[in-house]
């Protein structure tokens, strides 16, 4: 497998965690979202992913984009360890939380939107994340055990950790979100989350390396 990734991309980070948890070895091709006006806009990368976004994963003779679609494929083809619970209700909760983050928070504060916000970008990002976290905190109070849904790591957790990192990067006050904070801390102790961290990627700038 070949993962086209950017060290700081939260969507790429989700997939890196999934690959690490499932023990899938892969090669990584960095796509710098800032350099040369954004390497994702190159003709070569557009041929790979017409949406001109990371991640993209070449695996089993196909190329997939969209982080949750990639994780679902890995789950279908390499089911151990499981990232979607067998219980239909818990499975639905995992998908709900994943979509809440991947559709309801992250796109509103990603690079392309922030560029358009100009000087207001930090304020905008803080508002989007805080609004999403207020809802997410309430949801997690009903679904969480040690992790987002019960005591097993799931796709929801793969979405949570990168989003909390974004919140920290934009100086969002996490005080009102004790459940989110607790789960994030527990997940960061797991090896798959450590090796997938933006500070430990091939394209991490020297000053940001762990």
From TrEMBL:
The protein's Enzyme Commission number: 2.5.1.18, 5.2.1.2
One Gene Ontology molecular-function label: maleylacetoacetate isomerase activity
GST C-terminal domain span: 87-206
SUPFAM superfamilies: GST C-terminal domain-like, Thioredoxin-like
InterPro entries associated with the record: Glutathione-S-Trfase_C-like, Glutathione-S-Trfase_C_sf, Glutathione_S-Trfase, Glutathione_S-Trfase_N, GST_C, GST_Zeta, GST_Zeta_C, GST_Zeta_N
Family stated for the protein in its record: Belongs to the GST superfamily. Zeta family.
PANTHER family given in the database record: MALEYLACETOACETATE ISOMERASE
Name of protein: Maleylacetoacetate isomerase
Phylogenetic placement of the source organism: Eukaryota, Metazoa, Chordata, Craniata, Vertebrata
């Amino acid at each position: 497998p070949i993962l086209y990734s950017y060290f700081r991309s939260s969507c790429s980070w989700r997939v890196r965690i999934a690959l690490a948890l499932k023990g899938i070895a892969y090669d990584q091709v960095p796509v710098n979202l800032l350099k040369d006006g954004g390497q994702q806009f190159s003709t070569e990368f557009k041929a790979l992913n017409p949406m001109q976004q990371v991640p993209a994963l070449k695996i089993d003779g196909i190329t997939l984009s969209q982080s949750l679609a990639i994780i679902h494929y890995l789950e279908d083809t390499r089911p151990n360890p499981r990232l979607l619970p067998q219980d239909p209700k818990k499975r639905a909760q995992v998908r709900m939380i994943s979509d809440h983050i991947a559709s309801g928070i992250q796109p509103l504060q990603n690079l392309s939107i922030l560029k358009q916000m100009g000087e207001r970008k930090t304020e905008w990002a803080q508002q989007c994340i805080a609004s999403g976290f207020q809802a997410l905190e309430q949801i997690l109070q009903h679904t969480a055990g040690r992790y987002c849904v019960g005591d097993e790591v799931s796709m929801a957790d793969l979405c949570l950790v990168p989003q909390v990192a974004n919140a920290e990067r934009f100086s969002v006050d996490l005080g009102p979100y004790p459940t989110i904070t607790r789960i994030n801390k527990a997940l960061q102790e797991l090896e798959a989350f450590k090796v997938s961290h933006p500070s430990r990627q091939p394209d991490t700038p020297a000053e940001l390396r762990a």
